[in-house]
Amino acid sequence: MSRRDEIKALITNHSRRLQKLKEQLAYEGKSADPKIPMEIEDIETKIAELQTELKEIENRDQANIEAIKNQQGLIAEDGQFIPDEETLAPPLPAFDSYLLETSDVPTGTVSLRSKFYIEREEDALLKNQVVKRRSITTIQAPRQTGKSSLLERGLHYARKNEVKVIKLDLQGLDKVDLDSSDTFLRVLAEFIADRMDLDSAIVVEIWERPLAPKRKLTAFMQKHILSTHDDPIILALDEADRLLETDFYADFFGLIRFWYNEGASDDEWEKLNTVLVISTEPHLFIDDIGQSPFNVGLKLNLEDFDEAQIRDLNRRYGGPVQEQDLPAMMKLLNGHPYLTHQAIYTMAVKKLSWADLTRITTTDDGPFADHLSHQYQLILNKPGLKKALKQIIHADHCPDEKALYHLSRAGLIKGSSGTYTLRCDLYRVYFERKLGK
User: Fold this and answer.
1) Distance between CA atoms of residues 226 and 232, nearest Å
2) How do strand 272-278 and strand 298-301 relate by DSSP bridges?
3) Which pLDDT does position 279 carry in this prediction?
4) How many other C-beta atoms are found inside a 10 Å radius of the C-beta of residue 141?
5) Are the CB atoms for 44 and 15 separated by under 8 Å?
6) In the structure, how many helices (H) and strands (E) does the chain have?
7) 332 phi and psi, to 5 degrees?
8) How many CB atoms lie within 10 A of CB 76?
9) According to a count of CB atoms within 10 Å of the terminal CB, is the N or C end of the chain lower?
10) CB-hemisphere CA count at 13 Å for 421?
């Protein structure tokens, strides 16, 4: 299924759920569960984000159609125009203006075929890890640092090496899927069965047994997944910290650790590799370090781009940022991968100078307008988050652990041990103006 079709299906599913909730709210009135309006708001936000992404894909496809009229190539399943049939792009020997004409607007996960993906040390470490047996890998970084792009490349490498991959993005789950441990574990089992081409009746049969939910999923994994395959299997959970919204997250992550421990003495469980992608500090997930999957295995902490990586990306776009302007870019964006990519892309496409770009960085029609607006919407109706962000702007400190979790996950702040700052100068300038003194 292409990403376009996947988005359309998600919008349809979310819209159906939204309609049911609105009907329930209208029928029950004041006696309705107070969680219903919150879920309605969440779904409406999710639909709006999906519609924005769909529009970007449609705009890109139109550009591809125009490009292909004059160029030989093919349209890949994800809608990108490919001038050759390579799966992964080699490093660029020199700038090719044609690549700019056919490149994607920087947003979301970077395509495997993109020639503008900047490899980091973590790419090699992840590739080495995903072909092993009995491993846990944690990829941690703020939002829009490249976690999902790194994950996709690691999983692509695993598939090439005949490792079976099961990947679930928890952001795609509805709130009802997280109602209880039993509901979530069954949803997870059904997803795994689907990806492994198993009859869904297997899950139905197991869930009818008089067992606790964790034992049901464990039995399903051992009997129907691990025992039927000789090669390693990867279970990858993107946006895994969404489980922090539940009251069973500690039990689930304890289960992941239990499976890992079983692999030390059980040949079946030794086949299982787990990859967890999170945006927040691991200590927020589980108090008992003996039950935590985050203090074993490989931990990949993605940082923002350094100066060398920014120079590399700038070179790939033909050098729109002049040498003397690179320090100013670093100061304003602090190597934020998405913002840096967006800035260089905009300068290259619109032929802007750094001075031109800085004049429109926080305007409503500037290159960062949608991104900044989205970040502001995250805190707009949340006084606690506004207060916390103002404290960090003016004092580099915030005592509210819950607010720190939400702001860190959104990628707005960085820091630890009680000292926090805005992630980049652009955020500081923008939010100082929005929030006031």
Assistant:
1) 8
2) unpaired
3) 85
4) 21
5) no
6) 17, 9
7) -75, -45
8) 16
9) C
10) 6
Cα separations (Å) of 142 from 225, 284, 383, 422?
Answer: 33, 15, 22, 12
pLDDT band at 85 (very low <50, low <70, confident <90, very high): very low
Whether the Cβ atoms of residue 424 and residue 339 lie closer than 8 Å to each other: yes
pLDDT of residue 310: 96
The mean per-residue pLDDT over the stretch 64-76 comes to 49
Within 10 angstroms of residue 370's Cβ, the number of other Cβ atoms is 14
Reported for 55-58, long-range contacts at CB under 8 A and 24+ positions apart, including other chains, are 56/105, 56/107, 57/3, 57/4, 57/7, 58/4
- C-alpha angle 343/112/10, rounded to 5°? 85
Q: How confident is the model at residue 208 (pLDDT cuts 50, 70, 90)?
A: very high
How many residues does this entry show for the chain?
437
Q: Are 324 and 288 in contact (CB under 8 A)?
A: no
Q: How confident is the model at residue 68 (pLDDT cuts 50, 70, 90)?
A: very low
**58 vs 278: which has the higher pLDDT:** 278
127 token code pair: 């590739």
Instruction: Quote the pLDDT of residue 328.
Output: 96
Residue 94 is encoded by which pair of tokens? 């020199």
For 310-324, write each residue's pLDDT tens digit. Answer: 999 999 999 999 999
Rounded to whole angstroms, how far apart are CA atoms 30 and 24? Answer: 11
> Of the CATH numbers 2.60.120.260, 3.40.50.300, 3.30.420.40, 3.40.50.1820, which one belongs to the domain with range 121-301?
3.40.50.300
Tokens of 133: 């047996």
User: pTM to 2 decimals?
Assistant: 0.73
Residue 163 near residue 236 (C-beta atoms within 8 A): no
**Dist CA 316 CA 194 (whole Å):** 40
Q: How far, in Å, CA of 263 to CA of 224, rounded?
A: 17
Range with the poorest average pLDDT among 11-20, 76-85, 149-158, 179-188:
76-85
Query: Under CATH, to which class is 370-435 assigned?
Result: mainly alpha
Q: Say if residue 301's pLDDT is above 70.
A: yes
d(C-alpha 33, C-alpha 42), whole Å: 15
Q: In whole angstroms, what is the distance from residue 377 CA to residue 379 CA?
A: 5
